[in-house]
């Protein structure tokens, strides 16, 4: 049974990186462009504008797999700040069941996992790695 799951690892790493990156990227597109929502775009020079820029640009890097590990680490940090500042900080409740912080908490740990283990070789980083190995 372990062999079956071991064979799925490369595919699942790539699928997780792409799908989580797309879901995350869409939050930035909501903030910066007003896409996928009825709300107006936020001001670029606001904290929500800064968050939107990280979400769009670093999220896009994760989707494409271009320097996806540092981008995922940056996103993980952004989501940790979001959790403690916007959810726990505003409500005064530390735990996610009381402060509605499940999504930032999950994003923080999933992106930390991507930063630590990588997002698979079906990526720009993976192609560059193969190209360097072939040239050596």
Question: Any key phrases for this structure?
Answer:
single chain, 136 residues, mainly alpha
Structure commentary:
This protein has six helices and no strands. It has helices spanning 2-33, 47-64, 68-91, 96-99, 102-117, 124-135. The model has no long low-confidence stretch (mean pLDDT 92). By secondary structure, it is mainly α. The chain starts with a helix and ends with a helix. The protein is globular, with a radius of gyration of 17 Å. The chain has one domain (2-135).
Helix fraction by DSSP (H/I, runs of at least 4)? over 70%
How large, in whole angstroms, is the Cα Rg?
A: 17 Å
Query: Structural class of the secondary elements?
Result: mainly alpha
Order of helices and strands: HHHHHH
Number of helices: 6
- The number of distinct structural domains comes to 1
Shape: globular
Strand-residue proportion: under 5%
Return the average pLDDT rounded to an integer.
Answer: 92
**Record field, number of beta strands:** 0
Q: How would you classify the quaternary structure?
A: single chain
Q: Please give the largest β-sheet.
A: none
As residue ranges, the low-confidence spans are none
CA distance, first residue to last residue:
37 Å
């Amino acid at each position: 049974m372990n062999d079956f799951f071991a064979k799925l690892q490369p595919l699942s790493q790539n699928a997780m990186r792409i799908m989580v990156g797309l879901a995350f990227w869409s939050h930035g597109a909501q903030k910066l462009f007003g896409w996928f929502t009825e709300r107006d775009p936020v001001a670029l020079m606001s904290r929500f504008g800064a968050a939107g820029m990280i979400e769009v640009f670093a999220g896009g890097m994760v989707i494409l797999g271009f320097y996806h590990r540092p981008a995922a680490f940056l996103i993980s940090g952004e989501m940790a700040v979001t959790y403690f500042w916007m959810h726990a900080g505003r409500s005064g409740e530390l735990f996610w069941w009381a402060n509605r912080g499940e999504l930032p908490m999950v994003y923080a740990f999933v992106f930390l996992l991507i930063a630590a283990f990588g997002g698979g070789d079906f990526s720009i980083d993976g192609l560059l790695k193969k190209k360097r190995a072939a040239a050596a």
